[in-house]
Amino acid sequence: GKGDVHGEVVVLGSGPGGYTAAFRAADLGKKVVLIEKDSNLGGVCLNVGCIPSKALLHAAKVITEAEEMGEHGISFAKPKTDIDKLRDWKDSVVKQLTGGLSGLAKGRKVQVVNGYGRFSGPNMIEVQNDEGLTKVSFDQCIIAAGSEPVTLPFIPHDDDRVIDSTGALELDGIPKRLLVLGGGIIGLEMACVYDALGSRVTVVELMDQLIPGADKDIVKPLHKRIEGRYEAIKLKTKVTAVEAQKKGLKVTFEDDKGESSTDTFDKVLVAVGRRPNGKLVDAEKAGVAVDDRGFIAVDGQQRTGQSHIFAIGDVVGQPMLAHKAVHEGKVAAEVAAGHKRHFDAKVIPSVAYTDPEVAWVGLTETQAKERGIKVGKGVFPWAASGRSLSLGRSEGVTKVIFDEEDDRVIGAGIVGPNAGDLVAEVALAIEMGADAVDLGHTIHPHPTLSETVNFAAEMFEGTITDLM
Ligand code: FAD
């Protein structure tokens, strides 16, 4: 019909996975259509994820560093927060990036169709928006529909004092007492922001440690630091009820001994994980299987059970991270354009951009031991790093994990300021099959935090035995 659209490659969803796939496919000569329900391109990452959270975390870091510099002879007045201005700045960062994406799409002649897309057959998506229905037919399709925050049945999500990460990033006031439900990356990043802005923060986590995916020894310095700043950190505790009352949200906790307690908070941030959007696109009408949780299974070329339909990013599985989505997007687009490519990355780094940052890549020590690997490690405490001390910080740790059989690097856990940048070197080392000598004999610039990776390797080799 009139206004109907055809794409050789149609991409559903414009997050980091989707826009990367769309741009790569267009660069490889395909006629590409990109479907997006939101008015901005960029998905969760650019609009309500990675980028706005990092802008606010930067503000948080400036505040806490200014506070702490008081102990070293430079005192500032208590910072005055103009929350509207802070929000405007954060929004402007997002806008610059999402606007940039529109330009990049135009430059490549990627046609953007705005609206909510659902499959209506093996070669058709119907896109609904306020103006009506557009039929988008395709030769090949890449599903990049992403994920949404998990909601809990016993929480009154319709109360505006109950927020998810998107609500937290809106900066709609600074609550006096904030409960962060979930001690994972997203919850702890937001906790860090609101603590710096003046909220008294409580974090509650079901497991026996914060950031359960990382080794406990690497999370400990973060735990210790925020324990001193926050009102409380409750581990091995679950929230069983949240009741909206006039004076606040009454929360019931239950610890691992079955003991209940209650407390009242001004806001509750629910950050207990993300749910893939696979069930919301009528994928079965295209013959694509979606599992009970909403994930879409793919092979090593990102193909679903239908060989002309690919899926990438959060909707295909863990870890739900932007750089994984981007990598998968490139693989899918290149395969769709007839190139030989498959997902062959060995490792995907994870980073919590808290203060201090917690980063890990490859096998954790716990995982390596579970797999029966003869685990060797080099652990370098940053208290012996001149650069760390000159930042006024000493709690960091760099742990590099090796396979004792051949001394190859198999993983790393790093905690400290900028740990997220440091872990990239270890990711490269693992991809290249580097061993302890490679890391230990590479000259690192002095004085940098990157030296801690070099020192950790030397500690494993035994060439450094004493610290300072
Ligand atoms: P998404 O970014 O989820 O994009 C999917 C897009 O598809 C959306 O724009 C959506 O509107 C659209 N869509 C979905 N269904 C339809 C439909 N039926 N029709 C039309 N459009 C549709 N990751 C990191 O690596 N680093 C970080 O620092 C980081 N920080 C984060 C902070 C927060 C607060 C959150 C919530 C997440 C963070 N993440 C981070 C995770 C990261 O945002 C995701 O892994 C990433 O966005 C996934 O990309 P994607 O392309 O799979 O999907």
TrEMBL record:
GO biological process: 2-oxoglutarate metabolic process
Main EC class the enzyme belongs to: oxidoreductase
Keywords: Disulfide bond, FAD, Flavoprotein, Lipoyl, NAD, Nucleotide-binding, Oxidoreductase, Redox-active center
EC number of the protein: 1.8.1.4
Cofactor details (free text): Binds 1 FAD per subunit.
Chain positions recorded as NAD(+) binding sites: G182, G183, G184, I185, I186, G187, L188, E189, E205, G273
Binding site for FAD: K54, G117, D314, M320, L321, A322, H323
Disulfide topology: C45-C50
Residue positions of the active site: H446
Transmembrane segments: none
Swiss-Prot/TrEMBL cofactor(s): (R)-lipoate; FAD
Gene Ontology molecular function terms on file: dihydrolipoyl dehydrogenase (NADH) activity; flavin adenine dinucleotide binding
Swiss-Prot/TrEMBL catalytic activity: N(6)-[(R)-dihydrolipoyl]-L-lysyl-[protein] + NAD(+) = N(6)-[(R)-lipoyl]-L-lysyl-[protein] + NADH + H(+)
Miscellaneous comment in the UniProt entry for this protein: The active site is a redox-active disulfide bond.
Record-stated family: Belongs to the class-I pyridine nucleotide-disulfide oxidoreductase family.
Listed name of the protein: Dihydrolipoyl dehydrogenase
Included range, full protein: 109 to 576 of 582
